[in-house]
């Protein structure tokens, strides 16, 4: 069934829009449920984090009390010395130390200078409970401190003097010092948190309208509870999360109006509905225009495809639809690639023919030299086979590294590997990273093969102690290669004036193909070859090039 673009676009829009409105209800419900779970988890994590902050601070205060209780000045009854030590220890903290006797008298308070007249403790109920708590520490509820003239809380630690006299060490802090625990910046927008003591009084709150020392306004929050619940107070519904601190007996309460909590879900529904309506209107209104543009683009693409099949040159066409323009650019690129590929194929065919002829020429020269230098048929077969194998190894490296060139170290290792003795330290390679073109690699590979062959037969590798050192370096002039044999048995060598195939490779192929300068030096313990290859040296051209 053949239909224009506008028919299929309109059908597609109807198929997408109608189920989308139905599915949006399911997605919205699941989104609300997931959001509720996330909010619950975040609330529990937040209240738990506040609880840990509070308990960590209180435990730190208790540790400070235990350290101060062992002060020698206190055990010796020197209250003034103890005052000085406590003041120094608490100088950089929000805490102050109070010493209280069994009659609730303040013997010392670091809030005021030593010797200042002090009244009885401001919270007698918690002081008495601390004295009767079987020696265990106690955290008070919030109370108004007469000395501080602020809402404070105390951490008590009972102790005894060597005389048996009981007293309390108390670290006191202003309630406002706990503001860091209910920092509003750590809460979600619209949420508040408060620290409430065991009597239901507020210690500190992120809501400035909830004052310290006043009863917490949500009376229906259970005294000991952990979790998230909904509470209605004075006609307003709240979402409330609570956490209970076992160490302090306090509660951490986070709350927000339900309207604030549910606002994201409500707005999500409104925006989803509005967006769906707007999207449907825009999609339906633009479908005909898009169909028209697509039709024009397809016709032009079809025309370019026919031209590509005919092998014609194609230019990319600009178009308002990016996909059509991309296809047009791809067709133009394909046409250019086709032209380029055809040229590369012709070039490669010529190159293969040229390389094949060069290889045959090299093999012919190897055959001629092997015949002339061989002493027997077996010697000829062995030397010719090894030379062919060396040429094959160089060819493998050239094929494997045709794009980036052949690494000289890899070439040397590849050619010398069949000749390397059991002790690898007898063949030493040294030089910087160096990449060779294919023809240079083939020529140097054959040269290294012949040098290694001569070293094995007559030179440093013909005995059990000789060493071959191959080194190379780079300079502005070109490449310098040095082949040095040490520890060779000179007397066992053949006539040094006789030129074998290896010498011909060095002198003819390196000299002629790479325009290299060669120097042969005879040392008392072995031969040395110095090869200097100028930069941009090129091999012989044409089918008649000989090594």
From TrEMBL:
Report the Gene3D superfamilies cross-referenced here: Histidine kinase-like ATPase, C-terminal domain
Catalytic activity reads:
ATP + protein L-histidine = ADP + protein N-phospho-L-histidine
Which Gene Ontology MF annotations are present?
Answer: ATP binding; protein histidine kinase activity
Q: What is its EC number?
A: 2.7.13.3
Task: Name the UniProt key words of this record, in alphabetical order.
Answer: ATP-binding, Kinase, Membrane, Nucleotide-binding, Phosphoprotein, Transferase, Transmembrane, Transmembrane helix
Q: Which residues form the Signal transduction histidine kinase HWE region domain?
A: 351-433
Transmembrane spans: 7-28, 269-291
Tree of life domain = Bacteria
Q: What's the protein called, per UniProt?
A: histidine kinase
The record lists the organism as: Ensifer canadensis
């Amino acid at each position: 069934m053949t239909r224009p673009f506008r028919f299929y676009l309109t059908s597609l829009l109807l198929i997408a829009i109608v189920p989308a409105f139905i599915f949006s209800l399911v997605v919205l419900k699941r989104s609300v449920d997931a959001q509720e779970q996330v909010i619950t988890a975040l609330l529990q994590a937040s209240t738990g984090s506040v609880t840990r902050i509070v308990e960590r601070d209180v435990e730190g205060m208790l540790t400070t009390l235990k350290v101060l209780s062992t002060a020698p000045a206190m055990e010796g009854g020197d209250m003034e010395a103890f005052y000085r030590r406590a003041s120094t220890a608490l100088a950089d903290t929000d805490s102050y130390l109070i010493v209280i006797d069994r009659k609730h008298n303040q013997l010392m308070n670091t809030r005021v200078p030593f010797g200042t007249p002090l009244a009885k403790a401001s919270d007698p109920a918690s002081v008495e409970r601390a004295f009767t708590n079987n020696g265990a520490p106690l955290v008070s509820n919030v109370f108004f401190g007469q000395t501080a003239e602020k809402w404070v809380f105390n951490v008590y630690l009972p102790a005894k003097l060597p005389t048996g006299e009981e007293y309390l060490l108390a670290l006191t802090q202003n309630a406002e010092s706990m503001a860091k625990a209910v920092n509003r910046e750590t809460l979600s927008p619209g949420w508040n948190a408060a620290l409430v003591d065991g009597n239901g009084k507020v210690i500190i709150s992120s809501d400035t309208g909830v004052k310290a020392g006043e009863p917490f306004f949500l009376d229906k929050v259970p005294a000991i509870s952990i979790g998230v619940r909904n509470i209605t107070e004075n006609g307003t519904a709240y979402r409330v999360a609570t956490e209970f601190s076992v160490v302090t007996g306090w509660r951490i309460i986070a709350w927000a109006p339900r309207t604030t909590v549910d606002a994201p879900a409500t707005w999500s529904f409104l925006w989803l509905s509005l967006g769906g309506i707007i999207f449907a209107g825009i999609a339906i209104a633009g479908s005909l225009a898009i169909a028209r543009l697509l039709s024009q683009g397809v016709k032009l693409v079809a025309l370019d495809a026919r031209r590509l099949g005919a092998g014609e040159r194609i230019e990319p066409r600009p178009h308002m639809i990016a996909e059509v323009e991309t296809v047009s650019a791809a067709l133009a690129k394909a046409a250019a690639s086709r032209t380029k590929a055809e040229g590369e194929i012709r070039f490669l065919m010529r190159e293969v023919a040229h390389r094949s002829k060069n290889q045959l020429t090299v093999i012919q020269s190897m055959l001629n030299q092997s015949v002339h230098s061989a002493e027997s048929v077996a010697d000829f077969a062995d030397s010719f086979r090894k030379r062919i194998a060396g040429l094959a190894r160089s060819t493998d490296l050239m094929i494997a590294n045709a794009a980036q060139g052949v690494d000289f170290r890899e070439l040397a290792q590849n050619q010398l590997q069949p000749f390397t003795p059991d002790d690898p330290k007898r063949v030493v390679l040294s030089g910087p990273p160096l990449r060779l073109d294919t023809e240079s690699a083939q020529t140097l590979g054959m040269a290294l093969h012949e040098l290694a062959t001569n070293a094995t037969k007559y030179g440093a590798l013909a005995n059990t102690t000789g060493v071959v050192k191959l080194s190379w370096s780079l300079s502005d002039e070109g490449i310098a290669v040095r082949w040095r044999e040490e520890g060779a048995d000179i007397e066992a060598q053949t006539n040094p004036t006789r030129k074998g195939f290896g010498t011909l490779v060095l002198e003819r192929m390196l000299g002629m193909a790479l325009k290299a300068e060669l120097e042969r030096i005879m040392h008392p313990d072995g031969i040395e070859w110095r090869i200097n290859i100028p930069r941009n040296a090129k091999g012989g051209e044409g089918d008649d090039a000989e090594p």
